[in-house]
Predict the 3D structure of the following.
Amino acid sequence: MNGSELELALKELIETEGVNAGAVVTRDGIMVEFLNRHTPEAVSPLSSVVAMMAITAEKCTRMFKKGEVEELITKANNGVLLTERCGEFIFIVAVDKGIDLESIKLRREKVKSAIEGMV
């Protein structure tokens, strides 16, 4: 897989009802791909914030001896952010409040497969 397959998989996910945005970021904080239903341009500090969130969660789980981070779930008033590590990349997706997360699982897996294929 390549970058265009990642773009297509992310676009398919973002076109799903209730999914607002998605991004793939390197662990160093470099934006690889970003799609946002509401604002087409990337928000400049997003990539570094996503990287900090993931690294902080990983450090906390180690400090509390809870193993490796599988997924970081951030609940907000209007929705949920799902953040996952995919090798040396971080994948984040923003969804509306109340969406069944299982309903987007296959599309999320497709994005993760595209990420793994880039390595």
Summary: Residues 3-118 form a domain with the Beta-Lactamase fold (CATH 3.30.450.30). The helical segments are 3-14, 46-63, 105-118. The chain is about 35% helix and 30% strand. Residues 12 and 107 are 7 Å apart (CA to CA).
